[in-house]
Amino acid sequence: MKRFILIAAAVGMIGLGTWLAGTNAFKFLTGYMTVDKVSSEPAPVKQEEAPPVEVRETKTVVYDDRPEEGEIIGDLIIPKLDAKLPIFHGTDEDELEKGVGHYAGSVLPGEKDNSVLSGHRDTVFRRLGEVGKGDTLIVTTAKGEFTYKIRKVRIVDADDRTVIVPKPRATLTVTTCYPFRYIGDAPERYILVGDLIDSKKYKE
Q1: Total Cβ atoms within 10 A of residue 124
Q2: What CA–CA distance (Å, rounded) separates 148 from 194?
Q3: Where are the transmembrane segments (predicted)?
């Protein structure tokens, strides 16, 4: 009888232990799954409205229409040389024989970006070597008077295309063949690069 009581007690203890273990395991698994679900689905973050984007003008348009090839568009004034030279739209030989040529692929004087002027070293620009950093160049057109201050003098190879690359601000690039006394086709170019420092636009 005593043995039967001990066996029954042992079986009861085993059953109770099994029930407790199963209950804890269930709670543990339930909690684990809940935590995993929460961590995999984070609470939504409140979206704040983005501030309005400021749109900046990339180009300054001064002229209503582009000039025709060969048309005179203004004058280049070089105070250092006391010179006033006519500017023609285009850089073919026809334009360069008459004065300074404006590279048609560049913006017009006074506009934001790179306005490129060219001339022969043995005619209009024979004394351009006397002009350098700190000097001014003035371009007058039907739209206004635009003053540039030279910030850089460059001497580059004749096939250097960096002369005509776009610029982030209103720039005047003046180019001629170099050396000035070279006989034949000169191998280099003398470059003046100026920034627009004053703009006087004429009233319509």
Answers
A1: 24
A2: 5
A3: none
Instruction: Give, for all 204 residues of the chain, the pLDDT tens digit.
Output: 555 555 555 555 655 455 444 444 444 444 444 334 333 333 343 434 434 433 333 456 678 888 999 999 999 999 999 999 999 999 999 999 999 999 999 999 999 999 999 999 999 999 999 999 999 999 999 999 999 999 999 999 999 999 999 999 999 999 999 999 999 899 999 999 999 999 998 876
Residues written for the chain:
204
* DSSP state, residue 111: S
DSSP state of 74: E
Which residue in 80, 98, 120, 154 is the catalytic one?
120
Q: 3-state class of 161 per DSSP?
A: helix
Cα torsion 83, 88, 92, 96 to 10°: value is: -20
**Element of type H or E holding 138:** strand 136-141
State yes or no: is 89 an active-site residue. Answer: no
Active-site annotation holds for 31:
no
Identify any residues that bridge with 75 across adjacent strands, giving them in sequence order.
86, 140
Residue 71 CA, distance from chain mean position: 31
Torsion of CA 125, 167, 92, 78, to 10 degrees: -20
Give CA–CA dist 80/77, Å, rounded.
9
Catalytic residue among 73, 128, 177, 196: 177
